[in-house]
Amino acid sequence: MARPSGLGVYYNRFGSEATFGLLGTAFSGSKDQSAAAEFNAALGRQRFDLYAELLERLERVVYLRRGWKVVDTRRTLAAFRDYAVTKKWGDLTIQRLPNYAGLCQAHGADTVLDVRIWEWGVWRSSFKRVATMRLDCEFKLIAYPANKVLLDLRLASDVKEKKGFPLADFAKDDGRILVEETRDAIGVVTAAFADIIREAEQ
C-alpha cells in the first residue's frame, strides 16, 4: 500500500498558472511546509485516518451489494512479509504486497482490491488566493488464483470547479474544515470508482 506520510500544501496546481509555479514555490515553500505541519497536527487531534475512512466509504458504496470484503492491509501486512520495495515517491518508500493469492486465501475472497493513496493535499492558487483539497488514488483489482489484473486505474477528486477557501481557513476549527473537505474528496473518488465498476459489469 502506498500513502502519503501526511497532508501536503502545494502551490499553483493548474496549467494556466504553471509559468509562475516555480517562482511561487521558491518563495512559498517554507510557508507551505509550516502550514502542512499545522494542518497535520490539527488532523491528529481530530484522530482522522484518511486510509480507514477511504476503505469505509468503499465498503459502503461499492462492496456491500457484492459481498466482497474490505481488508486494511496495514493490519494484515505482518502475516504476509513477502513484500518488496518497488518505488520511491519523493522521500516516501512504497511497498507492494505481491502475495495477493495468500491474502485472498486468508480472507476467503476470490478478488483483492489494492488501494493506494498517491497524493493528499491542499492546493493553493496564487491568482484566486484560495485553496482546494485534492485526493489522488490508485485502484488495482486482482483476481485469485491467477493474480490476473482485472482493473488498474487512478482517480482524483477534481477541484478545478470548487470554490475553495483561503489557505488560513483550513487551520480554523482545529482541522474540521480539513476533515470535511477530505471526506468530500473521498466521496468524489469512490463514487467515480463505483460508476466504473457498474459499467464493467454491464
For this entry, give a set of tags.
elongated; 38% helix; single chain; 4-stranded mixed beta sheet; 202 residues; alpha+beta; two-stranded antiparallel ribbon
Report on the structure:
The protein is of the alpha+beta class and 202 residues long. The chain has one domain. The protein has 5 helices and 6 strands. It has helices at 21-45, 50-63, 73-76, 100-107, 176-201; strands at 8-11, 84-89, 92-96, 111-124, 131-143, 148-156. The strands form 2 sheets. The chain has a 4-stranded mixed sheet. A two-stranded antiparallel sheet has the order 2-3. Strand 5 and strand 6 (148-156) form a beta hairpin. Helix 2 runs parallel beside helix 5. The two termini are 29 Å apart. Mean pLDDT is 75; it is low at 17-21.
Structural class of the helices, strands and pairings?
alpha+beta
Helix percentage:
25-40%
Encode the helix/strand succession as letters: EHHHEEHEEEH
- The unreliable regions are 17-21
Task: Report the sheet-strand fraction.
Answer: 25-35%
Annotation, overall tally of beta strands: 6
